[in-house]
User: Which sequence fits this backbone?
């Protein structure tokens, strides 16, 4: 085996002046909204204070110029302290995979020496048996080979030759192409493939063909003494602190050279690599891949529900170190030691985060930090663009319209819609479909509150849409499920309604029942996706009891589910065993952590009493309580932002709620008189909820604080017998009636939320 050199290759330590200095600029000079330094510094200072790492170096480059470069903290804190410097040498860990191994593989692909779709055994003849003959080079590159993530470290004790034999004897954990499973073993094989095909050990090949051509004079394996002196310290091994020696135990046992780990580098060298990759988009000098090869390497490939490049991450379960607002063109990777690098051709941006988070005890955590820094940098690039009409999130209807309604060409369409069913510019979906020469809009179906979204009543009749003359059939009247007669003459149902991200908002049930009807009548069902205005990250609240399904408790999801309507449709189809022919038209440029105001989309009242985003955010917690004998502000200008009753003392209730110190929200005592609904015309004492920090506010915590306070202050006045209508959890109801604290209530369903997070994962469409 020739994975590594028999002799350690020296780094080429040339004076810095030999290679052109990387120019610097202010963010404003390269089209970013600055300054970005205060925001990045704040994130890092907090991480240092929380001991997420001992130190780091961060570099941001745009349009070929460094706009942020700074060393923070220390590169060593035990047994003595060494301050971090910008020229610190870092153990790249898994950044070795794309920078060294995958780049080398792609050069050999470019030369016609490796075919990505040929079996690995063509290049490594010993790698066969147990189904491994079917594994292709491409499958290794995107981690769908079926190989184990890591075989036992004992397999490496006698060095690479023996370890390679052990790998060749491995059985697969799943058939090739069947499952995404991030595998170091796969990249160990790719490193050996570079050596076999090129005739040079991996470290020598990468040095001669990748590092030196890009001016990366301080990058390579097994750094010499001069570079070891300014390397980070990682962890203690056999009484010796690792400093300039690879942290990964398997790479260490292979002599420091491996396809999955072993590379050492500096921030400036990674800048040179990043600039080389950006330059490779065009013919010319200064890069090591041809444009077509680069495109092939950085395209998004479906890795069984994850998006991966060839050696790079794109959007997968490992992408928490990716800037949330980076474009779809972005590619990057992270490393176990606390390294991350993302290159975004769409923004002409490179973000490098290098830390020694494993020092001294392996307990540091920096992926989220790296992602936040990437977001700051990307946001600064996008800020000016987001002020234009064409920026921000594109809705499913926008994507469909841009395709000239290809999915509906020649179809007879039934549209489930209301007043929220509009494109980004405000044009009604029904008008867009009606005006398309390729679409036949036969019928409109309307949900609760009617097609205009103005009715707050229990029975709504049919009507006609005045501009198009298309009949509107109510799904909140005689039936809540489209009937066979209503669906006559329709071959495709399209659902396009804005949900608000709460389990008991009835548009979910309308969609689910329509999906059932579509399956029964063999009608295609298309969902035009829309954002969850509360974001797609936070999930909270109890699950439904198994036997409690109703129109407001339609499916077993938590109160705040963190899914888009399209993602929910996928879940309903799978978990209810529906035969629906389902298609989702996804949004573009929506990130899971976006609240509505971060999308560039306007708020449009989703129902008569849901009038702004603050009310929508408060609703899952406070709305839960409206089936009890309190007013939640219906009949006032601020529904769900207030709560009260004639028997409540507002300041007293506010003090009790605030005593629970719910993050991001305060209650203030008020008086109000509803003009309709509960307590119409009666003076109510109560509270007004004021969101003080949108990022920290958790609405269910507020709901439990209100419930606990009402139970404590007004045990004889507050009636909870109808609380189960929306709550759907006997356990939580019992805890409320027993006077438990918000923290005690919340603790009861955390395992259920963790299970739900796993349940929903296969249905998620966005990172």
Assistant:
């Amino acid at each position: 085996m020739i994975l590594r050199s028999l002799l350690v290759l020296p780094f080429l330590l040339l004076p810095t002046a030999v290679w052109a200095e990387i120019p610097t600029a202010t963010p404003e000079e390269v089209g970013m909204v600055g300054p970005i330094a205060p925001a990045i510094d704040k994130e890092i200072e907090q991480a240092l204070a929380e001991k997420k790492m001992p130190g780091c170096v961060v570099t941001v480059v745009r349009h070929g110029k460094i706009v942020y470069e700074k060393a923070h903290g220390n590169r060593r804190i035990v047994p003595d302290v060494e301050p971090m410097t910008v020229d610190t040498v870092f153990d790249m860990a898994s950044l070795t995979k794309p920078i060294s191994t995958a780049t080398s593989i792609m050069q050999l692909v470019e030369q016609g020496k490796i075919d990505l779709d040929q079996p690995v055994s063509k290049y490594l003849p010993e790698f066969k048996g147990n189904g491994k003959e079917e594994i292709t080079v491409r499958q290794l590159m995107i981690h769908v080979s079926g190989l184990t993530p890591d075989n036992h470290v004992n397999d490496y004790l006698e060095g690479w030759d023996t370890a390679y034999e052990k790998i060749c004897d491995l059985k697969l954990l799943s058939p090739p192409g069947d499952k995404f499973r991030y595998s170091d073993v796969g990249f160990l094989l790719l490193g050996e493939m570079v050596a076999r095909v090129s005739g040079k050990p991996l470290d020598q090949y990468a040095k001669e063909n990748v590092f030196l051509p890009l001016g990366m004079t301080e990058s390579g394996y097994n750094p010499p003494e001069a570079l070891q002196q300014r390397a980070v310290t990682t962890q203690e091994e056999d009484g010796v602190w690792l400093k300039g020696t690879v942290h990964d135990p398997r790479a260490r046992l292979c002599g420091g050279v491996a396809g999955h780990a072993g590379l050492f580098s500096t921030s400036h060298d990674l800048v040179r690599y990043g600039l080389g990759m950006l330059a490779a988009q065009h013919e010319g000098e200064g890069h090591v891949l041809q444009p077509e090869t680069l495109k092939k390497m950085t395209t998004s490939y479906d890795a069984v529900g994850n998006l991966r490049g060839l050696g790079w991450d794109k959007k997968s379960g490992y992408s928490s170190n990716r800037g949330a607002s980076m474009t779809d063109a972005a590619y990057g990777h992270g490393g176990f030691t606390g390294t991350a690098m993302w290159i975004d051709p769409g923004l002409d941006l490179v973000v490098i985060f290098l830390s020694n988070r494993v020092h001294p005890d392996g307990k540091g955590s920096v992926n989220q930090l790296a992602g936040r820094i990437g977001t700051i940098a990307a946001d600064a690039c996008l800020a000016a663009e987001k002020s234009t009409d064409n920026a921000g999130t594109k809705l499913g209807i926008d994507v469909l319209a841009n395709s000239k309604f290809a999915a509906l060409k020649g179809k007879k369409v039934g549209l489930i819609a209301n007043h929220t069913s509009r494109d980004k510019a405000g044009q009604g979906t029904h008008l867009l479909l009606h005006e398309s020469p390729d679409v036949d809009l036969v019928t409109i179906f309307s949900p609760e509150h009617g097609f205009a979204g103005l009715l707050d009543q229990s029975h709504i009749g049919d009507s006609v849409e005045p501009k198009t003359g298309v009949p509107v059939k109510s799904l909140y009247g005689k039936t809540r499920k489209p009937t066979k007669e209503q669906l006559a003459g329709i071959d495709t149902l399209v659902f396009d309604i804005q949900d608000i991200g709460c389990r008991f908002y009835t548009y979910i049930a309308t969609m689910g029942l329509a999906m059932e009807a579509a399956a029964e009548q063999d009608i295609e069902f298309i969902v035009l996706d829309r954002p969850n205005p509360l974001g797609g990250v936070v999930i909270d609240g109890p699950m439904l009891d198994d036997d409690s399904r109703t129109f407001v408790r339609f499916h077993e999801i938590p109160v705040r589910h963190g899914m888009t309507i399209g993602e929910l449709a996928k879940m309903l189809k799978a978990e209810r065993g529906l035969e629906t022919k389902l298609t989702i038209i996804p949004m573009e440029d929506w990130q899971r952590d976006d609240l509505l105001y971060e999308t560039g989309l306007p708020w449009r009242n989703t129902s008569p009493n849901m009038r702004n985003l603050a009310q929508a955010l408060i609703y899952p917690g406070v709305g839960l309580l409206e089936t009890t004998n309190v007013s939640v502000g219906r009949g006032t200008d601020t529904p769900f932002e207030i709560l009260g009753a004639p028997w409540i003392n507002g300041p007293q209730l506010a003090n009790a709620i605030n005593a629970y110190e719910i993050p991001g929200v305060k209650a203030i005592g008020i008086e109000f008189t509803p003009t309709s609904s509960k307590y119409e015309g009666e003076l109510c004492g109560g509270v007004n909820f004021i969101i003080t920090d949108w990022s920290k506010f958790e609405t269910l915590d507020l709901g439990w604080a209100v419930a606990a306070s009402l139970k404590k202050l007004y045990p004889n006045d507050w009636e909870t017998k109808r609380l189960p209508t929306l709550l759907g959890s006997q356990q939580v109801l019992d805890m409320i009636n027993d006077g438990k604290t918000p923290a005690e209530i919340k603790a009861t369903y955390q395992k259920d939320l963790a299970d739900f997070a796993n349940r929903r994962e296969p249905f998620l469409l966005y990172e």
Q: What stands out?
A: The two ends are 40 Å apart (CA to CA). The first helix runs from residue 37 to 49. The chain is about 30% helix and 15% strand. Confidence is low (pLDDT under 50) at residues 6-10, 12-19, 386-390.
